[in-house]
Amino acid sequence: MSKQFQFKLVLLGESAVGKSSLVLRFVKDQFDDYRESTIGAAFLTQTVTLEDQTTVKFEIWDTAGQERYKSLAPMYYRNANCAVVVYDITQASSLEKAKSWIRELQRQADPSIVIALCGNKLDLAARRQVSQEEAKKYADEEGLMWGETSAKTGEGVSEIFTAIAKKLPQTAPPSARGGAGRPGAAARTGVDLNKQATAGPGQTEPCNC
Amino acid sequence: MDEEYDVIVLGTGLTECILSGLLSVEGKKVLHMDRNDYYGGDSASLNLTQLYRKFRPDQAPPAELGRDRDYAVDLIPKFIIANGELTRILVHTDVTRYLEFKQIAGSFVYRDGKISKVPSTEMEAVKSPLMGLFEKRRAKKFFEFLQSWKEDDPNTHQGIDLDKHTMSQVYEKFGLEPGTQDFIGHAMALYLDDDYKTKPARPTYERIVLYTSSMARYGKSPYIYPLYGLGELPQAFARLSAIYGGTYMLDKPIDEIVTDADGKFVGVRSGNETVKAKQVVGDPSYFGAGKPTEGGKVRVVEEGKVIRAICFLKHPIPGTDDADSAQIIIPQNQVGRRNDIYIAMVSSTHNVCAKDVYVAIVSTIVETDRPEQEIAPGLQLLGPIYDKFVSVSSIYTPTSGGQSDNIFITRSYDATSHFETVVDDVHDVWKRMMGKDLTLQKRNVEVEA
Prior knowledge:
The complex is a heterodimer. By secondary structure, chain A is of the alpha/beta class. Chain A has five helices and six strands, in the order βαββαβαβαβα. In chain A, β5 (114-120), α4 and β6 (145-148) form a beta-alpha-beta unit. The two termini of chain A are 37 Å apart. By secondary structure, chain B is an alpha/beta fold. Chain B has a domain at 121-218: Guanine Nucleotide Dissociation Inhibitor, domain 1, CATH 1.10.405.10. In chain B, the strands form four sheets. In chain B, strands 1, 2, 10, 11, 12, 13 and 19 form a seven-stranded mixed beta sheet that branches. In chain B, strands 8-7-15-16-17-14-18 form a seven-stranded mixed beta sheet. In chain B, strands 5-9-6 form a three-stranded antiparallel beta sheet. The interface between A and B is large, with 46 and 52 residues.
């Protein structure tokens, strides 16, 4: 029986650096050139299988635009096992924003969180403003993982998520194993509202629609 | 802020966040703002720093209480009744995926100087000291009557018309003692005063059915509670709104509700920016809070006051069998009041405070000009209180429906023990705004394997 882990992954970064595109590429292997800012993105999950047959299921939380006016709720960071902080390699200012998100994570999130700094839009390397050396140096200083990706071509995308998956089961606290803080119904420890209990007489018929 | 919106929502309390989420799902372009830098408004859960900043700006939280981040202290004492309307909305909107719930361990009622568990099973009912042997038989007949009631089968009605007979008449028919009536009306039907007795019995019947079916759903008590505090509820609905395109701005001062010459809503001004929308909805604090607003118009009026005392304890509440969470109801008759006193207690089991700390909120509707004395019978049940934060809040209600000026105002959080009146308000505001009833449709949820 192979091992299975489930983790909550949160995305962070300035608007328009390609957070949603990165997830769309990772989860559906799609890219949309004219993608508007995130609307209606439901709850995405994707599973990575490692060489030793361990499977890592990511429960992915997109910011849903709440980062735009610094209005992300504490709920967003809560029980996050890993974070992908995205910047745009063609915008130097987006790395500065990424650094401030990393400070926010270090303040708000669980200390054991695995953070990956991700330079997106590698397909636009000709207009590069952020050098690999600069970003890598910062990541090393802060103890972060680092990689560059292109959500458009797919380059580096599965690599960065796989790298996170490899790092996770070793670093995450035991409580996160086999189900992250806010997992699907299967791993819940509390009561499940979606499961309708059979109840005594006098109960109005629960609605399943 | 130069865009125009369909709806501006002011305040991120639960009522506003549910409305915001439902409006966004409906396809409305929503801008949601709050003057605070945290979600939840009056229904927020605060960490220690925020709690002290609110109640004691000159004092830092004592180190002894532990880590700031371990705390999520509710400002209003409410639980979710398991089989109620809020649960239905949570499930229908699929907001449950952002939340995790636990049961509240027990429901207790005060009688003759001590507290007893509200029976949750027939076994507990038989052993309960709340009724004598003969009274238990009479009560059994009463509950059998309620359980077997079928609307279209007159044989089950035993000559009672729920829409004509008063609840007093129903109690009399079954010969129930005043103490039992207190227990049924206050600990099960959750009425705050005795006015229900002289009114038709149907609403009481419905409330008892809600209570017993909620009790049956998970077993220990009729209540459930979100881990990390009630403040998670508005955050979860805000996320729903954002996912459907809602724009969020916290920490945004709201300086003026701008209206045209006819008094109709135009937009909201913050500093020197004005953002326009067709409609505005918000909590009473954004609309004068009982005082005249721009143009001398009083948009909300006070209909009463609630006192709430947030108490930190270093022990479970005596007499609750060391329950990690509980509701205790002190029926008004027991302490010579018009309104019940409630105690709502949660603890580290619900991830709202450090280990070995218990957070109890004692509350009641204010009847005198010395409200803190009014809650004394509740405070006395708690044992030694480590620290206490007392507030008296006005309950505001809007003076107009909003259809004439496109200004729709929600109600303040009342003294009831659960969120059903909040959901009633959501339905009411929705109908005023949209001109039709709110019908809940299941979202199409995209979930990959």
